[in-house]
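Supplementary notes for students who missed Thursday's class. We covered one full example, reproduced here. Read the sequence, then the structure, then the short commentary at the end.
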Amino acid sequence: NMEENIENAHEICTHDGVLLKKVNSNCMVELNTTGSINLIHSLATNELWIEWRPNDGFLISDTDTQEQDEWSFVDTIVRRNRTTSESLIFNTNTNNITVKESQAQTPPKQRIIRVKLKDLKSVEVLKNGLVIKLIGRADGRPHSEYVFQHGNADNFVRSLSSTHCLQRNHRNRNVYDVVEDHNRPQDRDKLQKTFAELQIDDIKSGSGWISNMMRRPYEQTMDIFAKIADVYVATPVSPTSSSPDNSRSPAGQNVSPSNVMMQSTTEDYEVLSTSPRLLGSDSEAVTVPNPAKRSGSPETPHLPAVEVQPRGQPLSEMVWRSMINEDGSIPSEKVDLIKEKIFRGGIEDDIRAELWKFLLDYDLWANTSQQREHRRSNKRIEYYTMKSQWLRMTPVQESNFSDFRDRKCQIEKDVKRTDRTHEYFAGDDNPNLETLHELLMTYVMYNFDLGYVQGMSDLLAPILYVMQCEKDAFWCFVGFMDRVFSNFDMDQAGMKRQLHDLTRLLAFANPRLHGYFVETGSDNMYFCFRWLLVWFKREFSQDDIMRLWEVLWTGLPCINYHLFISLAILDGETDTIIGNKYEFNEILKHVNELSMRLDLDTILAKAEAIYQQVKSAPHLTDEIRGIIGEEPVEKVTEIHTDSDDESDAVISGPTKSVEEEEKLQKKIEEALEQSMYFNFY
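Structure (token representation):
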């Protein structure tokens, strides 16, 4: 695409003084020519392009009087106004340079080089920021190479990063991989505009928050969402505090936001309430008719009515003990009963730590007590081995290990602001904060590909509070991260997939609200980002979040059930959002103001009801079936080969001999001993 025109183009950024070093044969005439490199957004096709355009009126001298690198530039008779950045390159000695007579000849047609960003695999920064190389996606070969005469190639990469289209390669820090499904520029602008209009001084006045958004878009986005929560949750909300919509409540009643959220506002749709009738005995239930009836669209298929089951009692110690065999194992049929009980009512406080170990795969249901103890002993050794690795890292090693150093710095900053209002983590010099720090550092050693990303400390804090034991908390955290690791992918693929799935579920279960989001340009669902990232950690109290997480950890009634929690919250806010004609900015603000104002039991009951409606809908599509883990109607025949088995055999590698195992065990014990010494003495 050397000459392809870009319709209705918008120039995002431009960098001058860029010399074309390498290109394919079509543009050989422009080699060693200086020009400008631009990032272009095509409004017509919603695509990003990289464009290099040669400057008018400059030719390359072939004399030997160069002072800059191996190229020198000659000013011809035809001139144009130079930009400030371009003028910096004209510090060469031109006394002995011959001006080429170009007036008598027709100048050759300039070749403009353009490439779609999606057609590139990566961008490489070479020679200390002087050179960038564009690598094609189709064949993996170099597309073109450019020399930045001002040494500002990193500035161009930062400009690209501001579009959320690049991610740094884990194996080579000089390589930036192109994200295929990067955010649309208009969506990015909408997010940045939202942060500005919310007037959050703590964010805007922070050092370099805008530059950080460009340099580290993913981490900075999460940091901003976290700070948004802190702003709105800073003032405690009493149960009797009034709602922003109190003026619209019947008879001017002063009710809590959670009650306003569940009020019935139409005759043909009865919304869940917090009355004792719903949350009381198991014999009573509330019928939830089709939410599509609110849309006023006769073409919208109706969802079937279902009975909402009230929440049950938490799993008690007596019931739990009755499920365990004499040898300590739990039979599979009892496991299903236990999970069902937890899904219905949660776990009593006295046995929560014990049950979480099973739910998070630290303890195995089928293991006997003896097997379980042996497994824990091995896990303990493994934990302290990894811990000793970073404890024994020298300052010189740290200074030469930028990835480790950056993650350590980020952990130290995040730990200081994690759950500080909770008594367990409150106060200065709190030893529990030190434990939190050590656990996160050890997880970096356990999974260095993922390392640490903002938000992980939110997931670990409640686990540490419940376990009250460092090694147990670590392995439970590992089990949790194994479920949500895709939330922290640097390319945001996991979060994008969840937001997409949530949008599809909303369109199916609540077409009225989905249609409104489409009309207001809010169907990207960014306002749910924080919910999904840390599993509603900032939306509920510590007691509530423990109950919610253990419900979700059961895996019942389907995969992606946390999306139905989001649907339940949004369903309760439908009338408020549409009635007040909220647009994207107001929706984001309103959603964040729901923090600590939500009634968990009502939301859990409603989420299950919505799931039952969706699952039993006669017009259920294969797309929705896939989201909830159901088999598709139109099955695709899979062709199996033996190659997978062969590859698995290669990956597994050779089995260690007994002697090698003993030698390795000895090394582990030595590392453990050293780790314990450095940690406690």
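Commentary. The chain has three domains: 9-178, 183-274+288-305+495-620, 348-488. Residues 348-488 form a domain with the Helicase, Ruva Protein; domain 3 fold (CATH 1.10.8.270). If anything here is unclear, bring it to office hours.
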